[in-house]
Design goal:
Structural class: mainly alpha
Largest sheet: none
Order of helices and strands: HHHHHHHHH
Shape: flat
CATH topology of the largest domain: Tetracycline Repressor, domain 2
CATH class of the largest domain: Mainly Alpha
Number of domains: 2
CATH superfamily of the largest domain: Tetracycline Repressor, domain 2
Helix content: 55-70%
């Protein structure tokens, strides 16, 4: 007896998984209703029963990447919580470098994405930060993680890549640049990330203590 395989029913989750797969393989520019329909083996119009437009798909890809975050751990302090969340975010962003522009240009929109924002804000408020400074701390933390990941993990297109010839610089005019460039080959970007993260957390703590009397 001949058997036929049936595709799983179309759903928002299935559409977003397919969208993330396209982004990983082809980049954000490849996302369209038609391309998604092709990937899922359905007519593009059927997608509108689950997602309204391309913007909603991009918000969903944002959500799908964050959905891979390891569960937040119970930490002894807000400092430890921020360090853990920063490292977890960096890990999932490095796994999906083509999605990095979303995190540099879009806010969290869906409830599932906003839940991660809520967790960080709760840790900051519980640590004694005021409302506005909690928001600033969150924004600065995300900017650092995303920015560092873009700088160290994003791959430029072949026709856009540059290779600075630091060794050819005039040693009299640029002695420190040439000195720093000599260590680039052995430079540890993971250690660099930890260096920046520690500086950021220490700065937040110093600012929190300084502004304590005016905290809301």
């Amino acid at each position: 007896m001949k058997t036929t395989s049936r595709r799983p029913p179309l759903s928002r989750e299935r559409i977003l998984r397919a969208a993330l797969g396209i982004v990983d393989e082809e980049g954000l520019e490849a996302i369209s209703m038609r391309r998604l329909g092709q990937a899922l083996g359905v007519e593009a119009m059927s997608l509108y029963n689950h997602v309204s437009n391309k913007a909603e798909i991009l918000d969903g890809v944002f959500e799908a990447v964050l959905g891979e975050l390891s569960p937040a751990k119970r930490e002894s302090s807000w400092q430890a919580f921020l360090r853990e969340r920063a490292r977890a975010l960096r890990s999932v962003l490095r796994a999906h470098p083509n999605a990095l522009p979303l995190f540099a240009t879009r806010p969290a929109v869906t409830p599932a994405s906003i839940a991660h924002v809520e967790a960080v804000l709760e840790a900051l408020r519980g640590g004694g930060f005021g409302i506005d400074e909690s928001l600033s701390a969150l924004q600065v933390l995300v900017a650092f993680v995303v920015g560092h990941t873009v700088a160290t993990s994003a791959t430029p297109k072949p026709d856009e890549a540059s290779a600075p010839a630091y060794h050819q610089l005039d040693p009299t005019a640029f002695p420190r640049v040439r000195e720093a460039a000599s260590s680039l080959a052995s430079h540890d970007v993971d250690a660099e990330f930890e260096f920046g993260l520690e500086a950021l957390v220490a700065g937040l703590e110093a600012g929190r203590k300084r502004r304590a009397p005016t905290r809301q």
